[in-house]
């Protein structure tokens, strides 16, 4: 990646619009970008920060938390900054782990339902009686569809 990019090049490289890059700078999601001849010039550090911000956004981290992370980052390698950033990321990682557990449970339930629906029809396409209803209730039998007689 080049060591300096215009806003249009940075937008292309990140998949963001130039408007979004300006907005992120305005609200403090990214550091103020140096200008040359009145035009923003994004360096390697700017691009790394933007990529990290996008990664955090992709995990669903709230904008407020990302702004706080960037604010703490601007403090440098102080104890407050390092502890604050570590705590913030630790809380978010815990949240993501909780979501992962929930999603994993949901996927397992979906897989059960898919198997149930697949078992209703045999390989030849003929309906097969199955215990349990479509909602997973115990003991109910799913009625088999009736075929119209020709």
Architecture overview:
There is one protein chain. The chain is mainly alpha-helical and 150 residues long. It folds into 2 domains: 74 residues, Multidrug-efflux Transporter Regulator, Chain: A, Domain 2 (Orthogonal Bundle); 53 residues. The chain has 5 helices and 3 strands; from the N terminus they run E-H-H-E-E-H-H-H. Strands 1-3-2 form a 3-stranded antiparallel β-sheet. Helix 4 runs antiparallel to helix 5. The chain is elongated, with a radius of gyration of 26 Å. The C terminus is likely disordered.
In short:
This protein has 150 residues and is mainly α. It has five helices and three strands. It has helices spanning 7-14, 18-26, 44-58, 63-74, 79-120, and strands at residues 4-6, 35-36, 39-43.
What is the CATH top level name of the largest domain? Mainly Alpha
What is the second-level CATH architecture of the largest domain? Orthogonal Bundle
- Order of SSEs, N→C? EHHEEHHH
Shape: elongated
Distance between the termini: 68 Å
Q: How many helices? A: 5
Q: Name the poorly predicted regions.
A: 138-150
Integer-rounded radius of gyration: 26 Å
- Structural class by helix and strand composition: mainly alpha
The number of distinct β-strands equals 3
Biggest beta sheet attributes? 3 strands, antiparallel
Mean pLDDT: 85
Strand content: 5-15%
Question: Do you know the CATH topology of the largest domain?
Answer: Multidrug-efflux Transporter Regulator, Chain: A, Domain 2
Number of domains: 2
Strands in their spatial order, largest beta sheet: 1-3-2
Amount of helix = 55-70%
